[in-house]
Structures are given as structure tokens and as C-alpha cells.
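Forwarding the complex inputs:
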Amino acid sequence: MQVLRSLLFLLLLLTPLPALAYDVLIVQSMHEKGYEEAVRGFRKECRALSRMIVLSDYADLDLVRIVREEHPKVIVAIGDRALELAQRQGETPVLCMMALNVKPRRWVSGISMLFDPARYLSLFQTLGTDRVGVLYDPGRSGVYVKKALAASKGHLRLVLREVHAPKETPAMLQSLRGKVDALWMIPDVTAVSAASTEAYFLFSQSERVPVVSFADVYLTMGAAAALTIDRYDIGRQLGEMALDMLEGRDPEEGMVSPRKVLSRTNDGVVRQLKLSGLGGH
Amino acid sequence: MRRRTLRLPPYAKSFRFRLYLIFTGTVALLTAAFVSFYVATEAGTYRSNLEREGKLLATILAHNARLPLFAENVKALESLAESTARYPSVLSVSISDREGRVYARQFKSERIPDDAVTMSVPISLPSGLSPESALLGHREGNEERVIGEVRLRLDTTGERERVLTLVVASLGIGTLFWIVVSLLSYHVLKRVTGSFNLLLGGIEEIGSGKLSARVDLDGDDELGRAANAINAMAASLELRELENLALQEELLKAMKLEVQEEKKRVMARLIQTNKMTSLGLLLSSMAHEINNPNASIRFSGHMIGKMLADALPLLDGVWQEEGDFYLGGVPYNKARLVLVENAGKIVENSERIAMVVQGLRDYGVGGTVRQHQKLDVNAAVGAALSVLACQTNKDIQLNTSLGTGLPVVAGSQQQIEQVLINLILNAMQSFTGGHGEIRLTTRCETGGEEVLVEVRDNGSGIGSETMERLFEPFYSTKLERGGSGLGLYISQYIVAEHGGRLELTSCPGEGTLATVTLPAATC
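Prediction (whole assembly, two chains):
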């Protein structure tokens, strides 16, 4: 009887152990359709054992302690908040997606939200524009713009305007009057704020120049075309990276651009601006 | 206190004028009500339009100013304020941020009236997506962020002027409308009431007695039908009048005939009355002529009686002494009885003549009514029969059945005799062939309180028509035979004066019963 009790006690102690034995700790910032779509793509590609934590479900989560106690092999951060929390620990490699403000870290890699500038430049070339206006915050998008500027040389001319506060956007746009054939709206929270978004499309209407944006939601506001990400494919792309890491292969360093581009156009704007080279999508 | 009455001119009493007054008054009231309602509605509409215009201007300005305000572009904001202030109804424009800092302000004039309408609209930024949200597929928020305010002051002077213009125009149009409608209604009423006047004129003419007049109104409407009805009525009245005239003429003729006949009857009655009066005078004269010799006879009778009374003892002595002797060819024994008897008869008959003459005199002249006398009905019957003794003949059988122990009656015996004489005479004249029987009965009734005298005959009787008029004065079926028509009239009067009643019952062909009921005299 004494032996039986001891065995039962040991069984109870050992029962949680299989649940804690996982390889991937998925940390999601909040319950959001876009995040969940990406997670679905990730799980489609990476079927390793994982634990899912949604930060918005916790008031105060001690991720460092969890990582220290549960020893996941890789942390998948979804969203900026999750990435920020994951970066506080320095033991486990972090893969991130759906995050915009990624600070370069040695153990952090993932899928960027920004396409390769060459994709946009190719689109502008298709539109037949020579001068493309770009508003950006050097502190946020300076690297990306430099990359774009380098890629554009010899093909078209980027007319750059720096903005350091959202309220400068309308004035900077006004300064582009007559100087550009198209506007490139990049995902810079300083250059493109909720308040100043309208200024882009007013400028587009008054100057009759197309706006090429980074999300299809702007098509309804007046953008002529948008190159948008496929969240499911981003998840799959990150899943492949996670598998590489779990299987001991070194994944690609740093942030990788999404491999799949979805191109959308607003047929009405295209028709009004008489743009060539854009078919309806 | 005398009430002052409002004297209206004749035209004011006409149907046309009253109708016109009512119609124009109603139109004036309706026009005034409509103008008031219209002005009130339009005034409210002007103000709401002004507010709507101000709201629209402020909303447009707020929409246009949100980017310049977000960018703190004062120049653009001033330009917007200036362009908005150009609107005539805008007095001032100001654009300020959330903290109240004014970025642009425009005034049309320094002095802004107190009743200016203030319109404030917040300047809101649309709830656009941030780049992160757009990329991550977050849902777009609905909240708008207020970053400032647009304030407009709107001038209501134009509104007042427009309302004043509206009032003046409405009153002018309303008055014009009223005048036009009044003129039209006057003509319409004149046309409509013309038929009324024509109808009224015709009715008045017919009403004045000229039944040959007609209402000259054509048409199938109500007035036309009324005119036709009145014309038919007038024609009917005219026909009736002609018939009445004919009937009147016939009536006049009949009345003339009747009057002539009545005149004849009245004249006959007057003649009869005159005869009666003459008869009365004759009777009085006769009484006077009879009374004088009768008085002498009665006196002589008394004297003869007295002398005979004195002479009889002497004659008896002579008879005793000398034996029987003759007086006037009659032995003394018989002559003595005859003398005594005849002497008595002379006095008695003389008194009787006096009584009869007195009766005739009273009948003719009218004697003094002695109502307070007490009479014996049987005596009155006897007296009446003695008066009529000369009238009776052997063909008429007069039977009397006089009751015994009859109570006396208060009244005039002579008048009761007159009543009985009239009734007996009527009975005697009812025999068409001169033969008949008269039964005269007296008796006591109702326990001795009343005395009845019945005169029954078996003559021709009285017809029902005659029976109804029996007691009328001067009504007689025997006027041509000397009847006066006053007998029963006077008899009924006398009996009634005695507190009694005279009743006649008759059956034609079987006879008549006349009953005199007299109350017994009280002790």
C-alpha cells in the first residue's frame, strides 16, 4: 500500500512534464485576424510541438521566467509587442513576423513587412513614371529609402522629402507639386498617419498623379495601386525558417523580405488617371 | 330705457348683400389665415435655411480646414476663413484648435448684432488606419479625433428683410386675391340672386292678389322648379278664386231668396203679433163694455134677490091665505122655487161673467202676477174649462180626472189657467178631422211635493222637426190659421217662473201628452 501511494504521487508529479516539452513558443501580441492568419501559415509549415501565448490575455506576463523554465528551442514573436517582449531574454533565438519596428539584434531574424524596394520600382516603371515622390522619416525608414534610392538609380528618380512629424506631411506634399509623376506611400508612421493620409489622395487628385501604397485598404481611399503582403505566406515563410533552426540549420540572418507579393489596383482611379500598364486585379 | 336699434339701409337687408358680405368676409378670413400661416411657415423656413446654410458652410469649412489645421498651416486657414467670410450671411469666421488657439479669424464688421446666429462645428480627423494597422490587417476604428473648431456668426438682417418683404408681398397678393375674388363673387351672386329677385317679384305680385301674374323664370334648376311650382299654385288659386266667385254669386242669390222668405215669415209674425195686440185691446175694450151692463145685471140680481126675500113671506102668506095662484103662468109653489133659483143664478152668472171678463182682460192686457198667491190647481183647471166652454163642441170629448187632496201651488191662478187654456187649445187643434178625445188629469207626485197636470190628446201628434222648435217664439205650424207661435213659448216661460217644468211628448199619428209639473207650496 505504501508503495502504491508513492507510485501515485510520482505519477502526479510527472504528468505535466510532457506538456512542457515543446520546441516552439509562439508569442502573439493580441487576438487579431491578421496575426491568426499568419499563425495558420506558420503551423501549416512547421508542425513542431509548440505553446501559444497571446499577450493580451495576460495582465503581466513574465516571459523570461517561462523561457528559463520551459526551455523552448525557438521563440516565434508575432507583432511588435510580442517581439519587444521576446527581445528581453537573450537565451533563445527569436523569429518574428508581422512586426514593423524591428531593432537589429543578433539572435533576432524573421520576415519583414516591407517588400524589396525593387518590387515597387518595377511597378513604377510599368506605370511609366520618371519622378516618384517619397515622404519618409529618416529615423524610421532611412535605411529602406536608401536601399530604394540605390535600386532606382538608372531607372527612375526618387524625389525625397523628409518629415519629422506627421503634421509636416501636408506641407511636404505641397512642396512636391509639379515635381513628381507618382507618389510612393511607404509604411512610415511619421509620413503616413491617420490624419495625413487624406493629404496623399488630395494631392493625387489635384496633381493627377497615382499613389502607390503598401496596403490594399488605401485603394478605397484613392490609391491607384497597392503591393500587399500575403500574411498566410509570411507565416509559411517563417515556418520554413523555424524548421531550419529546429533541424540545426542556420536560417537566413536578419529580416527577410516577404517572398509573395499581391498586387491590387483601383480600376476607377486607373481609368481616371489614364494609367497604362496596370490591369485590373 | 329705449333700445337703440341699428337702422340698416334697404340694400343691406337684401339677400344678395348679405350673401356677398358673408362670402367676402369668409374669403378675407381665409386669405388672412393663409397669409399668416404662409408667413409664419416661411419665416421659420428662412431661419432654418439660414441655420442649415451656416451649418453647411461650417461643415465644409471644417472639412477643408482639417488638413491645414493638422499641418498648422495658418496661411491656408486664413485663406479658407476669408473665402467663407465672403458669403453674404456670414458675419465672422474663426478657426481654432482644441486648446482654443485661434489660427484664422475674419470679421465683416466690428459690430456684430446680438441676434446673430452662432454656428460651431468641430474639426475632426478621420479615423484612418495607421500603416501598422493597414499592414497587419487591423480593423479600421470609428472614432474621429477632434482637433479644432470652426465658429461662424450668421447675419439675420437679411432674414428679417426677407420676412418683411414676404409679409408685404403676401399681404399685397392676399389683398389682390381678395379683391379679385370679391369682384368675381359679386358678379356670380348678381347672376344667381337675379333669379331670386325675379322669383321674389313674381311671388310678391301673386301675393298682392294678382293671381294672373306668373314668374318668368326658365331653367331646370331649383329656382326654375320653384318658379314652376309657384306658377302652378297661382294658376290653381286663380281657378279656385273663379270658383269661389261663382259660389258667392250663387250664395248671394240663395241668401236673397232666404231673406225674402224669412222676411215673409217675420212679417207674418209681426202681423200676428199686431193681431194679438189688437185682440188684447179688443178684449180690454170688450171687457169694459161687458162689465158695465154686467155690473148692472149683478146689481139687479142682488136687488131682485133682496126684494124676493122680502116678498116671499108676503107671497107665502097670500098663498096660505088665498091658496095657490099663478105667477107668469106658473103655479106659485113651482114659481117660488124658480124665482129663488133664478135670482141666485142671475147673481151667480153675473159674477161668473165678471170673472170671465176679468180673465179675458188680464189675458189681453196682462194682469198683475201674483206669484205669492196660493192656488188650487183643480180650480185653475175648472176656470180654464169654463173659459173654453164656448170653444168645445160635441165632436170633441173632454174628459177630466181631477185628483183629490192636491196640495196648493204658489203662483198666479190666472197664469196657470192661461197655460192650461193654451195646452187644451193646442190639443183641440190637433184633431185633423175635428173628432177626438182630450183627457185632462191632475195628480200629486213625489210624495206630495209636486202637482202634475196632464193634457193628453189622440190627435195627429207632432213631427220630430217641429218638436225640436216647439218652444221657439213665433214658431207655429198654424200661422195661416191664426196661430201666433207664442203659446208654448209663453206657457213654458210661465211654468218656469213658477218653478215648474213643461214637457211635451208626442208620437206622430198617435197623439201628444203635455205635462205641467208645479212644485207644491211650502207651508
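The mean pLDDT of chain A is 86.
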